[in-house]
TrEMBL record:
PPR repeats lie at residues 197-231, 309-343, 344-378, 386-421, 422-456, 457-491, 492-527, 528-562, 563-597, 598-632, 633-667, 670-704, 705-739. The keyword Nucleotide-binding does not apply. Gene3D superfamilies: Tetratricopeptide repeat domain (1.25.40.10). NCBIfam families: PPR. Belongs to the PPR family. P subfamily. Keywords: Repeat. GO terms for biological process: chloroplast-nucleus signaling pathway; mitochondria-nucleus signaling pathway. It comes from Punica granatum (Pomegranate). SUPFAM superfamilies: HCP-like. It comes from the Eukaryota. This is Pentatricopeptide repeat-containing protein At3g61520, mitochondrial-like. The lineage of its organism: Eukaryota, Viridiplantae, Streptophyta, Embryophyta, Tracheophyta. GO terms for cellular component: chloroplast.
């Protein structure tokens, strides 16, 4: 912009230079424009045609005009060009010839300005105006036209030649599209008040918007909206404003509320956004969570007389569907009826689709009946459902397990003229049957679709392959894949993902790897991240860490990164193999890769460190876990407690336990932790302390299980506390805790040795344990 402004500023000086001075390219171009204009030919020869010999007045006037403008003999010029009080008929032709022979833009514009000051100026007004406008028009067709246009404009301003509406609008449009903000503002400010009108303001506002001068454009618009304004907005004003403000680049500079308020102000002048732009505004308000604002705005537009159609209402319904407000969706439909806004098939499609998503299929069917004039809720319409609506309802029925109703609807669909089932229809049905485990029925539909001339697509294949794989028919799924490949239907990454995951699930990793190689090598399908994740997780969980590592390498070569599930599976696998170094390296790699570690990651490593008796690292991991915003879980604490108990550091374990059951703790101990401590205390001979833990356990509402009682029975047996054992047996009955083989083994050996088998038989009466077991 800087070079352009400097060039424009230099033009007046250039125009004042004499004929003998060196002219710039700009001067030459402007002179060429003038010559083209004043010549009668489209492509005139150079030099211009000579003046007629029989017009000595014109010849004399031209000689006088060669002098500097400030030394022109204006009286003589007037007498030569306008010799009588009446304007001669051939004067316009003479003036045109003279202007065409002046050798500079400066002189030409000066001559036109002189003509405007003569007593008969009213007769040449059209000549001056048309000539100047033609100069501007031709300059606009030249290379670098914006620079030349501004140069001509500045010269006209210096000569006092005003712009009329048309050239003013053209200049504003050109400078606005060229993003010449300074020139745009200059022209608008200098336009004569009587020329400035709505068209001029529209061109200026459009230029400001294009130049991202949004707030300045809105100020001009506010002036136009003023009741006393002489430049009231027009439909074009609205088109310019809404086109600009609803573009993505203006989202941050102007809020949705401001656009809505502006639309209502324009609406008071009878100017409204068209249906598409109104829908865009409703959508933006809806997506920003301003549903009530959107609905209120739409009703105000209607009250102002705006042409509200189904499109904006559909945008509103979509918004209410997004927030799952079914009640409001129904209200909008009723309101459309009251306001004589005809809903279309899209309107009903939105409502039915959302109701099906919310699993309110019966309500969706009620709307389906309403749209055909069959509803019993007092509101009905006459809109013929299309294939999309039928498919939506069939899919909704299948998702709630009502496949039989879906098949009945399929038959109704066949009966409606021009509404035949599609591949999507069958895909919905097959998906429903596969999810309910009716694989054979899904296969029948698959074959039926082909018989009806509806070729199954990749989605059809994937639905059936996935269904078979999930319900133990993975070999049948492979056979179907081969069959479809023979028919020319190629699988995609999802097809292989389903099969690979299924084979991993049954520990058939050889077949999983075979399919993986086939996918990438033979079928030419680049495995996606999901395929890699399924294979890596499956191999890691199965302990096949070498194979998992090889797949990890391929994943990274393909440009993917491991996800949290894969990292956790690999870390768990390496911990089980006691490969601490690799496990910790993966832990560090997660941070470098930007994968946020979760509680599973930390708990796995804390348990592993505790198992290795590396309590320093375990404590460090807990601290790191907290620093990352993760709270230790019962699994975290349980791992440490169990590890301390294993090395006979019961008091350390009890310290953690006391922290857990303190009032400030958010991790109350569970049955597993109580059992670990009770068992450890009994093994140390501290049976009374173990028993008190069980009392605390029951008091806190933590239910003891068979393992709890077994640990105490063993401890009491070591101490031969028979009466306490009888109390524990009664408590076990009260707690409805069923004895297992360990309970029977301990009690049988102990009670038979002390001659109390009858007590054992009495204890077993409440359980499904035969006397022969005793």
């Amino acid at each position: 912009m800087a070079p352009l402004r400097s060039a424009a500023a230099a033009v007046p000086e250039l125009l004042r230079s004499s004929l003998t001075s060196r002219r710039t390219l700009l001067d030459k171009s402007l002179l060429l424009v003038l010559r083209r204009h004043f010549s009668a030919e489209t492509n005139p020869p150079a030099p211009p045609a000579p003046l007629p010999d029989d017009d000595p007045a014109a010849t004399r006037a031209l000689r006088l005009l060669q002098h500097p403008e400030d030394s022109w003999d204006r009286d003589e010029l007037t007498s030569l060009l306008f010799p009588a009080d009446e304007f001669p008929k051939d004067s316009l032709k003479r003036l045109r010839h003279i202007a065409g022979h002046l050798q500079s833009t400066e002189k030409t514009l000066g001559f036109l300005n002189f003509v405007r000051t003569t007593p008969l100026a009213e007769h040449v007004h059209s000549l001056v105006r048309s000539t100047c406008e033609r100069i501007l028009d031709l300059a606009a067709c030249e290379p670098h036209s914006e620079e030349k246009l501004y140069a001509v404009y500045r010269a006209m301003r210096e000569k006092g030649i005003p712009l009329s509406v048309k050239p003013a609008v053209d200049l504003l449009r050109r400078f606005g599209r060229a993003l010449m903000v300074d020139e745009l503002n200059s022209v608008f400010r200098e336009i004569d008040p009587e020329v400035k009108n709505t068209h001029v303001c529209n061109a200026y506002i459009d230029g400001l918007f294009r130049s991202r001068q949004t707030r300045e454009a809105l100020k001009v618009l506010d002036e136009m909206l003023d009741p006393d304004s002489e430049h009231a907005p027009s439909d074009l004003t609205g088109e310019i404003v809404f086109s600009a403000l609803l573009r993505r680049e203006f989202v941050e500079s102007v809020t949705d509320d401001e656009v809505a308020e502006l639309a209502l102000k324009l609406g008071q002048h009878g100017i409204f956004p068209n249906s598409v732009k109104l829908s865009q505004l409703i959508t933006r308000l809806s997506k920003s969570g301003k549903m009530e604002k959107a609905w209120d705005f739409l009703q105000k537009v209607f009250r102002l007389g705006g042409p509200v159609e189904a499109g904006p209402c559909n945008a509103l319904l979509t918004g209410y569907g997004r927030v799952k407000d079914v009640k409001r969706m129904n209200e909008v439909l009723v309101k459309m009826k009251e306001m004589n806004i005809e809903p279309n098939v899209v309107t009903f499609g939105i409502i039915i689709n959302n109701l099906c998503k919310f699993r309110r299929v019966d309500d969706a069917f009620e709307v389906f009946e309403q749209m055909q004039g069959k509803g019993d809720r007092g509101v009905s319409f006459q809109v013929k459902p299309d294939v999309v609506i039928y498919n939506t309802l069939i899919d909704g029925l299948c998702k709630v397990g009502r496949q039989r109703d879906a098949l009945e609807l399929l038959e109704k669909m066949r009966q409606q003229t021009g509404c035949s089932p599609t591949t999507i229809t069958y895909n919905c049905l097959m998906d429903g049957y596969c999810k309910s485990g009716e694989i054979e029925r899904a296969r029948m539909l698959f074959d039926q679709m082909a018989e009806e001339g509806l070729g199954p697509n990749k989605i059809s294949l994937n639905i059936l392959v996935d269904g078979m794989s999930r319900h133990g028919q993975v070999n049948s799924a492979v056979n179907l894949l081969r069959e479809m490949q023979g028919r020319g239907l190629a699988p995609n990454a999802k097809t292989y993902t389903s099969l690979i995951s299924a084979f991993c699930g049954v520990n058939n990793f050889a077949k999983a790897m075979e399919l993986f190689d086939e996918m990438s090598n033979e079928s030419g399908i680049a495995p996606d991240a999901i395929v890699y994740y399924a294979l890596i997780s499956g191999l890691a969980l199965a302990g096949r860490l070498d194979d998992a590592s090889r797949v990890v390498s391929k994943l990274k070569e393909a440009g993917f990164s491991l996800d949290i599930a894969c990292y956790n599976a690999l870390i768990s696998g390496f911990c089980k193999r006691n490969k601490a170094t690799v496990a910790y390296e993966l832990f560090d790699e997660m941070e470098k890769a930007g994968v946020k570690r979760d509680a599973v990651t930390y708990n796995t490593l804390i348990a592993f460190s505790s198992k290795l008796k590396d309590f320093v690292r375990a404590r460090k991991l807990i601290g790191q876990m907290k620093s990352e915003g993760l709270s230790p879980t019962v699994v975290t604490c349980g791992s440490l407690i169990h590890a301390y108990c294993l090395i006979d550091e019961v008091e350390e374990a009890m310290k953690i336990f006391e922290e857990m059951r303190s009032s400030s703790s958010r991790i109350p101990p569970n049955t597993v932790i109580y059992n670990i401590l009770i068992d450890a205390l009994c093994k140390k001979g501290e049976v009374e302390r173990a028993a008190s833990l069980m009392d605390d356990m029951i008091a806190r509402g933590v239910k003891p299980n068979t393992n709890t009682f077994n640990a105490l029975f063993k401890g009491l047996w070591e101490k031969n506390l028979l009466n306490k054992a009888f109390e524990l047996m009664d408590m076990m009955t009260e707690q409805a805790c069923k004895p297992d083989y360990i309970t029977m083994e301990v009690l049988t050996d102990w009670l038979s040795a002390v001659g109390k088998l009858e007590k054992l038989k009495e204890f077993l009466k409440g359980y499904d344990v035969s006397a022969s077991t005793v």
